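ok so dumb question maybe but i'm new to this and my supervisor (M.) told me to 'just get the structure for Malto-oligosyltrehalose trehalohydrolase' and walked off. so i did the thing. is this what she meant?? sequence i used:
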Amino acid sequence: MAEPFSVWAPQRSRVRLDVGGSWHEMARDDRGWWHAEVPGAGPGTDYAFLVDDDDTPLPDPRSLWQPNGVHGPSRRYEHRAYEWSDSAWTGRPVAGRVIYELHVGTFTTAGTFDGAAEKLDHLVSLGVDFVEVLPVNAFDGVSGWGYDGVLWGAAHEPYGGPDGFKRFVDACHARGLGVILDVVYNHLGPSGAYLDRFGPYFAGKNLWGPTINLDGPDSDEVRRYVIDNALGWLRDFHVDGLRLDAVHALVDTRATHLLEELAVEVEALSTGLGRPLSLIAESDLNDPRLVTPRAGGGLGLDAQWCDDLHHALHVALSGDTSGYYKDFEGQLPTTLRSAFFHAGTWSSFRRRTHGRPVDVRTTPGHRFLAYLQNHDQIGNRATGDRLTATVSPARVLCGAALVFCSPYTPMLFMGEEWAAGTPWQFFASFPDPDLAEAVRTGRRREFADHGWGESEVPDPMSPDTVAASTLDWSELASADHRSVLETYRALIALRRNHPELADPRLDRFTVEDHDGFLLLHRGSLRVAVNLSPSPVTVPVRATSILLAAEGVSSSPETLTLPPDTFAVVGI
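this is what came out, is it supposed to look like this??
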């Protein structure tokens, strides 16, 4: 039986197909697609393309399997061959649910999908609803964050390839966990990005690499390439949602933005599949139109990361006011009430006004993700140090109480739930020695400008950096780590069992601020958090104490909190 092959290369005069060393001429149609049929070239067959007179075989831009790395041939993959066991999984919306961000390569020492699946019961006992997985698309080398992907549809082979990722998703669904996948459409990595050899995929560069042609000549097929990739993860890998990396870097001047077009198609797929599918944006624009429904003139995404909430929490907990944290000193109450602090206000870091206000009457808080830590805010520090490296666990737990008892959708980063002692540092493993040295030098030069010595910045190309960033699960044997874990479990359980704590209505959310003492009004509950250096007694008549840190006490008319403590009480 003849098997079809196709590739889009509209500006090429000749395209040949290489199947196991046998070359086949391809025929062009009027849309710039080239086609060929090869008898017997079914699933498991390796293939590549040769464009014009170049004799270097190139992998398929839409490859689903790269068993020999991003420079090697593609391998045909048949989605229907995998036997799913998640037919009972009906999905869930992301609104207000607890999200757990993890990186497959450092979640366990195995560094694989199967290794990560072995720890899923821990997440179930924690009370997590969704696992958000950092990018698993194919990138050059063995180890990396995943944001330098170049073949977006192929699951990274060292993690376990496409079948491995399906086993992981299947295992999550079997335990009642949804899966959100981080995808990167704003740039490609520096090694193995061959798309421009086929056609006008690229439109320039940004800080991270070549950007995608979303609105120039011949961009219709490029947009289709992006959208089809997104739909493929959701449909063929049974993923429940996508986190869209740095959407502010997507350059698209069309009347219908790519994000709106993607939202429309994902909604249609969700209807067809009969399960909720979610789109979550990362954006530094502070523009609520991203998550405003299309009927209201927005782009219709389900949620977005909210760095302003992180920054305000970070400053309140740590006292760090360097760089972009400067504007957030003393601004935690304001930011908790409105999601964005920069809402048409002056940003000293940007040296201009920034953002747009959130309409708290019409925009629910669950459209914004709140977090104390994430991969960026840890990994982009010089030494990858976690918040607990400089802030006491007791004070961090006060921050966790604010996150989990807020109107926002809470997220935590792997290991945060037990105050992991391991850092999470920047690492990559590019085989090209020149590229590896350029990344190493660039990283050290970047932090040298901020006063860090060369020896203080971990070598991003060293396997020791990856090892240092891998979670140490033996820490759970320590009483101190277990104590933090139990508090996280209790906070998540409270949120699930008391709907008031997850109420997303920002216009009904009250935050009292008394010089570092915060009192959140959550229906019939109050969340008291003392970040001040002195004990605080407040006139709160607590009829019940749902959860309290050690040292908190109450009388019939008052509640007393020592420094760095919190309490959730009924009134």
